[in-house]
Design a protein that fits this description.
GO molecular function: nucleotide binding
Number of strands: 14
Oligomer: single chain
Largest sheet: 8 strands, mixed
Structural class: alpha/beta
Domain GFO/IDH/MocA-like oxidoreductase: 156-248
Shape: globular
CATH class of the domain at 124-333: Alpha Beta
Domain Gfo/Idh/MocA-like oxidoreductase N-terminal: 3-117
Strand content: 15-25%
Organism: Periweissella fabalis
CATH topology of the domain at 124-333: Dihydrodipicolinate Reductase, domain 2
Helix content: 25-40%
CATH superfamily of the domain at 124-333: Dihydrodipicolinate Reductase, domain 2
Distance between the termini: 40 Å
Radius of gyration: 20 Å
Number of helices: 10
Protein name: Gfo/Idh/MocA family oxidoreductase
CATH architecture of the domain at 124-333: 2-Layer Sandwich
Length: 333
């Protein structure tokens, strides 16, 4: 079944998502929600689609779409997820899906009321074939003694912040900052590869408005630690690493996964990565369509993804508490 998709958000990441779903041939673009109808027209022209433009969110959810893709500011995800589920639409939502464990529990509750609806957090990197190669290589290693995952990238909106503006991606009122954006990539990788840590601590470097511009998190496991370095106000060119005994895995970027070197020892290494697809979202949208269309065959895979999303949500929340990072969602009852 070709799935009809409606999108919320018109930024570059929505365009990348549309490119991926059209390339997969598993979806059609059926609707575009934006407060500015002209933006929907631009997208239709760019992708040669004929999606219906909506400026009213209630009408958008009442339309004949099968799947909603949510790429709005972080703080808006939760209400839009609930509204989508209530209208029996499958949900693909950009990370972070929601902000607090309470919100995640409410999403779980709503899903139980609508058992035919599927909910996915768009953590694209964990679905890529090269991420699976990392997991497979870890299984072959005699011992894991720790890891360092790095994702530091200067945001195109940080110049606006420095100029005195308060863009959503750096605004605590919209759950902005490093940990709820680029930090999700290394946190997801750590939890997917190593499970829930027994303890977690975040050392955040805060901006003048209280958001975290960058920071270092330490996830403690029974036999090793994982250090996470991430930020949105500087660039880093450090590789990410997973430490064995004499061997190690060196990854160019924990989010992009274009190079993965397995070092057998200091003098012998091999490239285990395949050339990734030019659109990094293709793998995840293909997985999501397969689960929706053949749920009986992928029930356990779906449950595992849902549990992983909840675990990541819990870890991020715990890290925020240790760094005294608070958002309006934390006050919700």
């Amino acid at each position: 079944m070709v799935l009809k998709v409606g999108t919320i958000g018109t930024s570059w990441i929505t365009e990348q998502f549309i490119e991926a779903i059209l390339a997969s041939r598993e979806y059609d673009l059926g609707a575009i929600y934006s407060r500015d109808a002209s933006k929907a027209k631009v997208i239709n022209e760019k992708f040669a689609t004929n999606a219906t433009a909506f400026t009213d969110l209630t009408a958008f959810f009442a339309s004949d779409i099968d799947v909603v893709y949510i790429a709005s500011p972080n703080a808006l995800h939760y209400r839009q997820i609930l509204q989508a589920i209530e209208n029996d639409k499958h949900v693909i939502v950009e990370k972070p899906a929601v902000i607090t464990p309470m919100q995640f529990e409410m999403v779980y509750s709503k899903l139980r009321e609508h058992p035919n609806v599927r909910f996915f957090e768009a953590a694209r990197h964990i679905h890529q074939p090269n991420f699976k190669k990392i997991a497979a290589q870890i299984e072959k290693m005699e011992q894991i003694q720790g890891a360092t995952f790095v994702y530091n990238k200067y945001s195109s909106r940080f110049d606006d912040f420095l100029a005195g503006k308060n863009p959503n991606v750096f605004n605590p009122d919209f759950a902005g900052g490093a940990i709820e954006d680029l930090g999700v990539y290394p946190i997801y990788a750590a939890v997917a590869l190593f499970g829930l840590p027994k303890d977690a601590q975040y050392f955040a470097t805060k901006l003048s408005n209280g958001a975290d511009g960058r920071g270092t998190a330490i996830l403690r496991y029974p036999e090793f630690d994982v250090t996470l370095i991430f930020g949105k106000n500087s660039n880093s060119y450090l590789a990410s690493e997973i430490y064995g005994l004499e061997d190690s895995i060196v990854i160019d970027s924990i989010a992009e996964l274009t190079s993965i070197l397995y070092h057998h020892n200091p003098t012998e290494a091999e490239q285990i990565a395949d050339l990734p697809h030019e659109n990094p979202m293709l793998a995840e949208v293909t997985v999501f369509a397969e689960i929706i269309n053949n749920f009986d065959l992928h029930n356990q895979e779906y449950r595992d993804l849902l549990m992983l999303s909840q675990r990541v949500n819990n870890v991020i929340y715990q890290l925020r508490q240790t760094a005294a990072l608070s958002f309006p969602a934390d006050q919700e009852k």
